Amino acid sequence: MSENPLLAPFTTPYEAPPFNLIKEEHYLPAVNAAIEQARENVNTLKKDTAAPDFKNTIIALETCSERLDIITSIFYNQLSAAGTDGLEKLAEEIGPLNSNFASDIALDPDIFARVKAVYEDRQNLSLTAEQDTLLEDCYKGFVRGGALLDDGKKARLREINEALSTLGPAFNNNVKKSADAFKLQITDESDLFGLPDSATSAAKQAAEEKNLEGWLFTLDYPSFVPFITYADNRNLGEKIWRAFSSRAYGGEFDNCENILKIIKLRDERAKLLSYHHHAAYVLEKRMAETPDNVIAFLDKLKSAYKPAAQKDLKELQDFSKDTDGLEDIKPWDIAYYSEKLKQKLFDYSSEELRPYFPLEPVLKGVFAHFEKLFGLRFTENTAYPIWHEDVVAYDVTDAKSGNFMGVFYGDFFPRTGKKPGAWKTSYRNQGLQGGEIKRPVVAIVCNFTKPTKDKPSLLTFEEVLTLFHEMGHATHALLSNVTYASHAGTSVLWDFVELPSQVQENWAYEKETLDLFAAHYESGEKIPEDLMKKVVAAKNFMCGWAGLRQVNFATLDMKYHSGGTENITDIATFEDEATKDTNLFPRLAGPFSASFSHIFGGGYAAGYYSYKWAEVLDADTFELFESQGLYDEKTAHSYVENVLSKGGSEHPAKLYRRFKGQDADPDSLLRREGLLGKKAA
Description:
Layout: H1 24-47, H2 54-63, H3 66-81, H4 85-106, H5 109-120, H6 129-144, H7 151-181, E1 184-186, H8 197-209, E2 215-217, H9 221-230, H10 234-245, H11 256-272, H12 278-283, H13 291-324, H14 334-346, H15 359-374, E3 376-380, E4 392-398, E5 404-411, E6 423-428, E7 431-433, E8 436-438, E9 441-445, H16 461-478, H17 499-502, H18 511-514, H19 529-537, H20 543-560, H21 571-578, H22 597-600, H23 610-628, H24 633-644, H25 652-660, H26 668-672
Parallel strand pairs: 5-9
Antiparallel strand pairs: 1-2, 3-4, 4-5, 6-9, 7-8
């Protein structure tokens, strides 16, 4: 048998993953072998007769499973970006293997004794701030991982962790499979009335690719969003909305049982570890610190957003009645009539923007923005193997020094097996590996509008915002300058992680930034200034509705994870009760919970509030850039030096104060959204 490429040294540039060599059958043997290698490293640590110290214990633990970490990062990233039935099946085996190995370390009394000895001697060790954080994280990680439990509780904790390791991927798989199962085939051209050419062309091509007549619409965002926004056929709008809103609820890919298992196991784990519930367990390691603080934060937002959302809905109801005689507006009408009302109020259509946002020039412009702001240069490099023909790889360098900063991949279009949405991920974090500091290997994965036979990929403005957002995450990773990989880039407290991404969206509204890329794909004409002024004027349109929606999701998340799980028997009933004060419509489809991948298949459990929390930080941060200059070198340097480069090496509150000179103003977000008056001079 040929050598397993996952176990051999990577001979690619900068040791990026050799995607051209990796096959599905390589993963399981590689994981098993890497676990054995990691166990040998752990045994060496345990047998060390020297007194425990920072190097022979804390750093040894930090680096003991480097090969395993790389292999599993490749596997789980491919599971999301290129999921096949084979990878899904492998996840059921690899999850428990990895979980049990992690439990073996976390629950080993001999290893914990060494960590505890170093931790208790920390006052005498003269550690740097980063080393002190690593030691604190390591010790707390063991305690939170069950090191203080008795043997019986340790055994149960191991079972819980193993079960959860497969339930999350299974949840995501059901969402993906249920979405893939829906197809809206249209053969009567009159059913396309209202849809822009970009949507019908893409649907025509989608049908041809499946050897179908007519036009094919799916639940992928680039297909679903234009249909629900522009299609005049209200019955079909309702049909596709109900399908989207009922993903993974009922039928073959139902997620209700998975949700019940996940929330009950999380709650049991928290109680085993002496926390009141999962939210208390999670928030101990967040800026918000306690569930009460999160609830108070959400209540403050709700007090501003709910009346604004009710006003937004009343305006839509009046508009739809005046326009079409619609007496009773429904959830599937919201996108359609809000777009029509926006056109009336601000005299432009979202589709007017598309021709000015062809993906390739936009991407080059976004790269130019990050070079101008942070001095990062992106250069395409075809020497890197890629996992799909749509993927593009880049070398990232410091524009001034020429120093290599990392490898960057872009994967932009939807395909079967790919998880919906958009995300940034790492194949390797910056930091210590193999005895030396290595630069990161990162990717952003999106589901943007695909090119057609006669047009390039033309992005919506929302997709442009998504690109800025995910590139914000990517630059957080690429600018990382820490010693330990567990602190690198986006490895920060969860309610801080969205600051570097969300703040970047602000630049997309600025003429100085738009001039870098916004030009008509045929004529090359710059986007008209008056058109962008309309977009900026409409920035806060329906912001009450959008804000209440986010508070709704965050509230649902907190309710699921704040105890009482033994009383939850029906997901739909629970969701209705949990969100009754943040919903302006009764539920008219499957519960959102069934496809709430952020909290059941991702890392946002008891943390969805962090999007709004980080919006406060991003609004406060951008106010400084606005006052000093959008590309002010001093401000940008301070932001990189004190925030982006530091990752999780220090508490984010300290980093933010060092950058801004004070804590974030909690009113900055509502001020930006026009729900509070301007800041006094």
